[in-house]
Amino acid sequence: MASTTFPEGFRFGTATASYQIEGGATEGGRTPSIWDTFSHTPGKTVNGDTGDVACDSYHRWQEDVDLLADLGVDSYRLSVAMPRVMPTDGGPVNEEGLDYYERVVDALLAKGITPTVTLYHWDLPQYLEDKGGWLNRETAYRLADYAGAVAKRLGDRVETYTTLNEPWCSAYLGYAGTEHAPGLGLGPGAFPAVHHLNLAHGLMAQAVRAEVGDASQLSVTLNLQFNRGDADAVHRLDLIGNRVWLDPMLRGYYPNELFAITRGICDWSFVKDGDLEQIRQPLDVLGINYYCTSLLAMSDRPQFPQSTAASTAPGASDVDWLPTPGDHTDMGWNIDPKGLYDLLMHVHNDYPEIPLMVTENGTAAAGGDHVTVNPDGTKAVHDPKRIDYLRRHFEAALRAIDDGVDLRVYFVWSMLDNFEWAFGYTKRFGIVYTDYETLERIPKDSYHWYRRLIADRAIPQE
């Protein structure tokens, strides 16, 4: 019989990101990020939504910490916004910005919640984008300066520093494609961004270590792809989507097959002597974000695809994404809990030396979330599809643990309904409902279900 109880020491958490929840876009010395620019550009986001206010956590952070404490999480994964900390090009560190994050971190610790801090969750300062952004090698060095400033202030109060969140999205959706900021649509011209993100990871890791040594853990979060279907197509996308990050970060090289399949579209001359030694830095844990799988087939299509988020990775122009069977979320993503198990096993088998954590998993439930009023006047949000989704994915994670994976933490995405990037406020991932008119927070049924799971350290069975 499959286990339903998590091992001693396993940690539970939930997660958010700065631009998605904070608001306060022009307060406290903050200056624009690429997402401010992108979301204020007509036609880039649904309904023209922006993160100007979002969940207003910049002002309501104490309320959110209280919700986390009531939930009972062991850890909270938040991100720091570089435009709050280094708001001007070459200017001084903004102490007011660091003060904000220090208050949040100290409040979490006072509630017995350990902070996991993501240093870069996509909100690159616009002043860096104006100089080329991730296409410019210097951006990696500026991110290292920033990482060192944050680590110097927050120190060992942060349990885990995560350098980057989903560099796949930063490079492939923002530079190869047009779905994310800055939305350049460069196709294979995005490979320099891939390398500079890898370089930034290594430099940031060194900057953090210089400030905190081994007192805090160091990680990176990758949205690794787990694909099914044609073996050649799956292998190709593993190289472009996964090993392009994993091998330099954990092994110190780019796979030769990656150079082979990108011959003719990229010469990789932007990789300089010594870069790979800089990129490969000792990590304590690897974060994995997981939502769905894809079904692939090889194609003779000659053009570089520009239309779908899944197919914007350079070198993927001869791969087709096929319709996936079964139920799908409100994002159109298939629900495949076994994919989480398979992905965890795959990473564990290929990189057995690195412990793992699920840094994001959750769903925008098909059918949406709606507030109901109970007879006693209290408000509720019934989201059985989200509970079912989470239950099945926690079961998959527990099965992976039983089969030998060193999985240590699981962060549910997301704590709050929030600004869902180009989808604006039309997709709700939160276990807490956000009323975007009043900014009221209403815990959903999934919040109460998760609270019980955390309290019991076991998956509720009914």
Automatic annotation (TrEMBL):
Enzyme Commission number, as recorded: 3.2.1.21
Top class in the EC scheme: hydrolase
GO molecular function, one term: beta-glucosidase activity
GO biological process: cellulose catabolic process
Active site: E166, E360
Catalytic activity annotation: Hydrolysis of terminal, non-reducing beta-D-glucosyl residues with release of beta-D-glucose
Species for this entry: Bifidobacterium simiarum
Protein family membership: Belongs to the glycosyl hydrolase 1 family.
Entry keywords, A to Z: Carbohydrate metabolism, Cellulose degradation, Glycosidase, Hydrolase, Polysaccharide degradation
GO CC term (a single one): cytosol
Keyword Hydrolase: yes
A matching Pfam family: Glyco_hydro_1
Protein's UniProt name: Beta-glucosidase
Binding site for substrate: Q20, H121, N165, Y291, W413, E420, W421
